[in-house]
Description:
The complex is a heterodimer of chains A (319) and B (386). Chain A is mostly helical and 319 residues long. Chain A contains twelve helices and no strands. In chain A, helix 1 packs across helix 10 (224-249), helix 8 packs antiparallel against helix 12 and helix 10 crosses helix 11 (258-283). Chain B has a single domain (60-385), classed as Cytochrome-c3 Hydrogenase, chain B. Chain B is built from 16 helices and eight strands. Residues 6-14 of chain B have low confidence and may be disordered.
Amino acid sequence: MSTFGEVVLRSLCVLIAFLVLPLLVGQTEHKLMAHMQGRLGPMYAGGFHGWAQLVADGVKFTQKEDIVPLAADKPVFRLAPALGIVSYLLALAVIPFGPHLVAAGITGSLLWVLAVGAIGTVGTLMAGWSSGNKYALIGGLRSAAQLVSYEVPLILAAASFAMAAGSFSLVSIAHAWTPWWLLWQLPGAIVFLVAGTAELQRPPFDMPVADSELVMGPWTEYTGLRFALFLLAEYAGIVVVSLVLAVLYLGGWTGPFDHQIGPFWVLLKGFFFAVIILWMRMSWPRLREDQLQRVAWLGLVPLALLQIVLTAAGVVLTT
Amino acid sequence: MTTRELTVGVGAGELATADMVLNIGPQHPATHGVLRLRVTLDGERISRAEPIVGYMHRGAEKLFEVRDYRQIMVLANRHDWLSAFSSEVGLALTVERMLGMEVPVRATWTRTLLSELNRVLNHLMFLGSYPLELGAITPIFYSFREREELQTVMEEISGGRMHYMFNRVGGLREDIPAGWLQRVQAAIDGVRARMPELESLLVGNEILQARTRGVGVLTAEAVASYGVSGPIARASGLDVDLRRDQPYLAYDELFAPGGPGRVVTRQAGDCLARLEVLLEQTHVGLDLAQACVERLLAMPAGPVNLKLPKVLKVPEGSDYVATENPLGFNGYYLVSRGDKTPWRLALRSASFNNVAVLAELLPGNLLADMVAILGSMFFVVGDIDK
């Protein structure tokens, strides 16, 4: 009974975090962007500074008609939004918020995050292919190209952190963290952040959904709840990438009074990265697909390899 | 019975590829209304492009023929809703020239001032919307802040924010309100002071440069053969500006040697050059408006319009007057048979010619560059379809 109850409790915690954190990031984006652009952003829903705007949006989306186009490959079309959601939900389950505060404590949690995180993009691919829409198809192809080129630097950058800590477990990596990493692992962190943003298809790497070219890319034909699930998955992706980066590069719960407020540090550090990802959207136009590939193969991959050499040298010299 | 062949293989030679015909528009986020482009795609590369126009055709020229000379003004400022004042001025000048009217000098300078403010408003609009097509969402809020400032003074004098309806045959509707010129001065100073913020988001941005430099190069020959005009033509090195070459209003004085007027040109002909021309023209427009304000402040009070007969009839004949609108040449060909309405009033609008060149410009480019090029042609759909 106790193990079963514990599993239920842990799953419930992950689910709540999964539903709350992306909304928090979304609301931050609304407000931050608005104030950067001389606007106020949401001000009415919920009373205080429009805090409930995204909840209201969610309610609105559930009420909309769920349209499946006649030309669509229907089972695939229906399944696609679920893929993104589930993959990030599974990834969130292994992120540690403290030395013992992790929903699913598995040893290879870094590998797990990378593996399930990549599935999310397949959802976009499925949506693009199954929609029976030319814009969606082009968007899907773009996201496929993007996925292929950005997995490599992402994994190489993650490998560097694993080497430095000598473990694939996020908990162990956070334990092994020292302030020296801020300098030593900086190139890897940059690669991880850029590749993660591209993986999430966030601006300036959002060509799969480029609204001025492809209407909404793979999401063009989606309505109602399924469309909302794609949006939720995108923001959940930001949460996962930011939290993983917080654990890998900023030592997770490490900080003053970390015995008492460890989870707070994880969230704060994750929030820092989330704001960077949001900020990129506000200040930059989007790259072209071939320029994006250039950034990946000529910029990020060499940088990540360099980081691995640097990490290896550091590990050999200090042990 | 036909035999069905299926070739399977690896490599471009063996794998069957098919071109995809994509209809961009009439409803599409990149077309600013209802322009339709039928493009044939090979992968993401455009092999053929055809602009299909006419979805917003409102029969403006026919409507001109059944309205008297006071009423057509309201139609003339509709087709290009971002250059309403400039279009009004062009029509007023046409009618006045056929009537042989001498417009009061105060009205002429006020018209020049408002035309330039209108030009700045128009350019600010495109400086905001063009980055939007490239995925940058912030510049438009910066440019709209400046637009708001200028629109406030335009609204104060004319009562309108877009369709000013401030021109009359023989001058302007009303005199300048008290203290208005100082408020225009303050608005110009404010916009000029804040322009660097907008500029740093545009030409100072590496991604924007990467997206626009060398993209959609328009040759001077294509410009000449398609009748492209305005900032787009000047970005390809064509040094043509009717304000200097065929001066109207007070432009002969403003564009005289030592005056604030200058014609902005670039040689590259790519999207970045077009954006740069627009940006620099905004500054020139502010300089010209400033000069007009100073001139008007020094001018004694006087009439701003002429008394017109109750029934205004234009003598028989025809005339063509072209003005340098923000987007290019805007011409009116007026044929009168001595009635109180035009017998024929043909409209030459800038965007129509500017968009026609797309069929030549787009093939060979990527779909992602299509929006970069389309946006850099700075068109208004109403100005295409009339």
